[in-house]
Design a protein that fits this description.
The structure holds two protein chains of two kinds.
Chain A lengths: L1 H9 L2 H26 L4 H12 L2 H26 L7 H18 L4 H30 L3 H24 L22 E3 L3 E2 L1 H18 L1 H11 L1 H6 L4 H16 L4 H6 L13 H11 L4 H23 L5 H43 L1
Helix pairs in contact in A: 2-15, 3-14, 4-8, 4-11, 4-13, 4-14, 5-6, 5-7, 5-13, 6-7, 6-11, 8-9, 8-14, 13-14, 13-15, 14-15
Chain B lengths: L2 H25 L1 H5 L6 H9 L2 H5 L11 E10 L2 E11 L4 E5 L6 H8 L7 E6 L2 E3 L4 H6 L2 E4 L11 H6 L5 E2 L2 E2 L1 H15 L14 H14 L4 E5 L7 H16 L3 E6 L2 H7 L2 E6 L2 E6 L6 H9 L17 E10 L8 E9 L3 E5 L6 H9 L5 E6 L2 E2 L5 H6 L2 E4 L3 H5 L6 H6 L7 E2 L2 E2 L1 H14 L16 H13 L5 E5 L7 H16 L3 E5 L3 H7 L2 E6 L2 E6 L6 H8 L8
Parallel strand pairs in B: 3-10, 3-11, 6-9, 9-10, 15-22, 15-23, 18-21, 21-22
Antiparallel strand pairs in B: 1-2, 1-4, 4-5, 7-8, 11-12, 13-14, 13-16, 16-17, 19-20, 23-24
Helix pairs in contact in B: 1-3, 17-18, 18-19
The chains are: A mainly alpha, B alpha/beta.
Chain lengths: ~375, ~575
């Protein structure tokens, strides 16, 4: 026991973090295994199916593709988390942005790259606009952003339905199409691997990189994190709390605006209530949590969720309910939260002990 | 099986029963059912009597010391642990435990009060070895503790606060008359008059402390632990407290008195145990030592001599405040119509019992709190400026509460040092990490922050070292006006002198300082002028040469109001 403690004690912090995440995932798999056993399914067979199908080339590409919206959504959520701001409204923000951007892209004509860039900028602006409502409510009326963003999700859906039905739906072929007008080829993002992986994946990676740069390296990011860690100290040091709330919320909304763009400019080339995927706003919260709001963590967590999602169709074929994938994802989030808490307590204690020890030896030397 | 043994055993189920009845009684269920509860109170009283009293042989333990600690050790991550602490506290004496902040006094007292268990060593009370798994064990053994921060329910009366959790029952009803009689008797033994029916909310700090002491005595404590009891009191109240304690001791109670105020310790205690870096340095009597020797025992080296030093106060006004008020709707102003000016090279001390508007005054000056009136820094009006604009104009702040207002505990020291200076250490909007780290290393060495490096998270440092970092950060910003709230609170004597020296050096270089301090010695030693705040208003302005602690005390309590 003691020797084992000593081994862990000497490991550098990132390794401990990585190990603890691994433990959390294994724990989740064990719990889900028990669930499968209880329901009369063979967990080992299920996991073997997941691995065998998931680790094939095509499925790995699908994993990457599925990770695109998750990375974006998780980054949007994580920016808020970093300053104790809970943007539960990513869902409403990205759907609203998808509609506006799709309509915009279908109406303009521009040279290829510029067309896409303009479309993405409009999507970001639309997402930021929708998020700004919650920010304004918070700083002017003190309304908790958790409540306002949840409410705004519903409002967003209603507003979109009205806009879509009355102004933006493409009824050129007699009402058969339930999407916006298709975007011209100049506004379409090409695939990296034909039909398997879209270029938007690279955009998502770039956004995660920007998230890292802004939050972890910039002056603004330092202020953002300070406000999240101790808002009183941040204000005392001259950081304007309200401005931080607005800027953080706008940034979060701007990233959120891109979540559905893989579908809009990379697959469907339009927005449609059925065509555009939903649910990424909430999945993003789970991914941000699993990735501990860290850029690398977010990428890895998004890939894990993408991996599990990519196998769900095959599971169904093997007689295992594909909802087990959702269960695993949910259980992973819970185990990660628990293991994270335990790890950070352990790390805090270890740091305190090591600091005290270092000081003791210093004193002896002096 | 002896009588005592039987009684001790009977106590446990009876205790449960009494508690149960008390709970049911409080819920009012018995009233509704019309059940009468047998008078368990007197049975309980008999059973909880000290064994000696029950035996009628007061000398059962002879002259065994009230408390003996043998080789107590206790380790915690990150803080100085107790190491091999041994001490003997004779019955019926005031025994002081002195040591710097962080020396381990509180850890030791928590061990004695059963708040945690020692890693090794033994505790003996009245000659019998004991093991306390919780404070209730300690209370049962006759040890009571008065915490530095009072734990009273404001909207209950004195009586209710004292009996809370140990209500005397008579027929299922709280026997208030009996309780009042007992409390009055206890109060008389203390030498105080107290109206048991007045709400605690109406009491002053000194009276609240007395209620806390009575509460502990009411539970049958024969040994009282007082944790820094004078920290919240003004000089007159300190004298009264000491008078009360002397009476208690004459009546046979033992008092353990924790403090780092040496004059008080020398005045009131009959024995003094000095603790340094977690272990006992020695036990002395006040007759044997001078104040200075005692201080040197505490610090373990020759003391720096804090000398009052005058400087040339220039005519240039650096901070000018006119008619500043901080109002709350429907309440008395937190800060009321305060005006003053601080010149270049001047330290203006603010005396006052904590909570009389000093905090709000600093917040308002900092721009963190909405206020009326005008504030000008170096002639520039900043009455409506943001915190950042005021900082840019040259104001800097050493906060009242370093952890709440000054630090990000889980962040590294260099990030903490960067807070408030991120503009200075950024280029093109990105933080220059190397420069920020170097700046932190400089603060660490200049202010003697004890830490292995600048990557350590702030929570891993002791309170004193956290304070040094916060002070160092503030001073390294080269401010024009410094708001220093308790700049040396919780740091050791050596570092205290270093902080004073830094403030003086900056003052000599033209800094204007507003110094808020509870340490009157510090206040009088450093300040060029002193103002006294009471209930939000400035009630007096004095020269430190004329101000004695007594005089300040009478202004601080509102007993005396000077025309300004």
């Amino acid at each position: 026991m003691t020797s084992k403690r000593n081994v862990i004690d000497t490991l550098p912090r990132p390794v401990v973090t990585l190990l603890s995440s691994l433990v959390a995932v294994l724990l989740a798999l064990a719990i889900c295994g028990v669930l499968l056993l209880v329901t009369g399914k063979d967990p080992l067979a299920a996991y073997r199916t997941i691995l065998e199908t998931g680790l094939t080339g095509n499925k790995l590409l699908e994993m990457l593709k599925r990770s695109t919206p998750l990375m974006l959504s998780a980054s949007a959520v994580a920016i808020g988390f970093k300053m104790n701001l809970f943007n539960i409204g990513v869902e409403g923000q990205y759907l609203f942005a998808a509609l506006i951007a799709a309509e915009f892209a279908s109406r303009i004509s521009a040279p290829p790259v510029l067309h896409v860039l303009l479309t993405l900028m409009v999507a970001s602006a639309a997402g930021a606009f929708w998020a700004s409502i919650a920010a304004m409510l918070k700083i002017t009326r003190g309304i908790n952003e958790v409540i306002s963003t949840i409410m705004l999700n519903f409002i967003s859906l209603s507003v979109m339905q009205w806009l879509f039905d009355n102004y933006m739906r493409d009824d050129s072929d007699g009402g058969l199409r339930v999407t916006t007008t298709e975007i011209a080829p100049s506004g379409q993002v090409p695939d990296i691997v034909d039909g398997r992986l879209n270029g938007m994946w690279l955009v998502a990676l770039f956004v995660v990189f920007c998230y890292w740069l802004i939050v972890f390296r910039s002056k603004f990011g330092f202020r953002l994190r300070s406000s999240g860690l101790n808002s009183t100290a941040a204000q005392t040091s001259g950081i304007a709390a309200n401005r931080m709330i607005v800027v953080a919320m706008l940034l979060s909304g701007a990233i959120a605006g891109l979540v559905a763009m893989q579908s809009v400019v990379g697959e469907e080339y339009a927005y449609g209530p059925q065509a555009t995927p939903t649910g990424f706003g909430f999945a993003g919260i789970a991914v941000a949590l699993l990735g501990r709001n860290h850029p690398i963590g977010i990428v890895v967590a998004a890939m894990l969720f993408g991996f599990l999602d990519s196998t769900s169709a095959v599971l169904q074929l093997s007689g295992i309910p594909n909802s087990i994938v959702k269960v695993i994802q949910a259980v992973v989030v819970i185990t990660v939260v628990i293991v994270n808490e335990a790890t950070s307590r352990y790390m805090n204690r270890r740091t305190a002990e090591q600091t005290a020890a270092a000081l003791r030896t210093d004193k002896v030397g002096a | 099986m002896t009588v005592e043994g039987t009684r001790a055993k009977a106590r446990v189920p009876l205790f449960v029963a009494v508690r149960l009845f008390a709970a049911v009684r409080r819920s009012g269920a018995l009233w509704r059912c019309g059940v009468t509860v047998p008078p368990l109170g007197w049975v309980w009283q008999y059973l909880s009597m000290p064994d000696s009293a029950a035996n009628g042989s007061a000398s059962a333990h002879g002259t065994a010391p009230a408390v003996e600690l043998h080789n107590i050790s206790k380790g915690f991550p990150g803080v100085i642990a107790n190491r091999d602490i041994s001490m003997t506290v004779e019955r019926g004496t005031i025994h002081a435990i002195v040591g710097e902040n962080g020396a381990g006094k509180s850890t030791l007292m928590k061990t004695l009060y059963g708040l945690h268990q020692p890693d090794s060593g033994t505790i003996a009370v009245n000659g019998t070895e004991v093991e306390f798994s919780s404070p209730s064990d300690a209370i049962e053994a006759g040890i009571g503790m008065v915490h530095q921060h009072f734990m009273l329910a404001d909207n209950l009366t004195v009586l209710e606060n004292i009996i809370l959790g140990a209500e005397p029952a008579k027929g299922g009803v709280i026997d208030s008359r009996e309780a009042a009689r007992q409390i009055t008797e206890l109060a008389r033994s203390l030498g105080v008059e107290i109206d048991v029916n007045s709400p605690v909310a109406e009491l002053g700090v000194g009276q609240r402390q007395r209620v806390e002491i009575l509460k502990v005595l009411y539970r049958g404590a024969k040994t009282l632990i007082l944790d820094e009891p004078t920290a919240v009191l003004v000089p007159q109240e300190v004298d009264e407290l000491f008078e009360n304690l002397r009476r208690l001791v004459d009546a046979g109670t033992t008092v353990l008195f924790i403090s780092h105020k040496l004059d008080e310790v020398l005045a009131v205690s009959s024995r003094i145990t000095v603790i340094r870096q977690g272990t006992t340095v020695g036990t002395v009597t006040p007759a044997e030592v001078t104040r200075r020797q005692l201080a040197e025992m505490m610090v373990g080296s020759d003391l720096p001599q804090p000398e009052p030093r005058t400087s040339e106060v220039l005519d240039r006004v650096r901070l000018e405040v006119n008619n500043l008020s901080v109002s709350r709707p429907g309440r008395r102003d937190l800060v009321h119509d305060v005006s003053f000016a601080i010149r270049s090279g001047e330290i203006l001390g603010v005396a006052g019992v904590e909570g009389n508007g000093q905090f709000e005054l600093c917040s308002a000056l900092l721009g963190r709190e909405h206020s009326s009136g005008t504030v000008a820094i170096d002639g520039k009006d900043v009455s409506h400026a943001s915190v950042r604009d005021r900082k840019n104009a040259g104001i800097a702040y050493v906060p009242f509460d370093r952890q709440r207002e000054g630090l990000m505990l889980t962040s590294s020291l260099w990030e903490n040092n960067l807070l408030g200076q991120e503009e200075k250490f950024s280029k093109y909007g990105f933080v220059n990490v190397a420069a920020a780290r170097a700046a932190c290393r400089e603060v660490i060495s200049r202010f003697g922050v004890l830490t292995p490096n600048e990557d350590v998270p702030a929570f891993a440092l002791s309170g004193g070292n956290q304070q040094k970092l916060v002070v160092g950060r503030t001073m390294s910003m080269n401010p024009a006006v410094l708001l220093a709230a308790h700049p040396t609170r919780g740091i050791d004597v050596g570092a205290q002198a270093a902080v004073w020296e830094e403030i003086r050096t900056a003052r000599d270089a033209g800094l204007a300082v507003l110094l808020v301090s509870a340490d009157l010695e510090e206040l009088l030693g450093l300040s060029d002028r002193v103002i006294v705040m009471f209930e939000g208003s400035v009630v007096a302005e004095l020269s430190p040469r004329d101000a004695t602690p007594e005089l300040l005390g009478s202004y601080m309590t509102g007993a005396k109001v000077a025309a300004r």
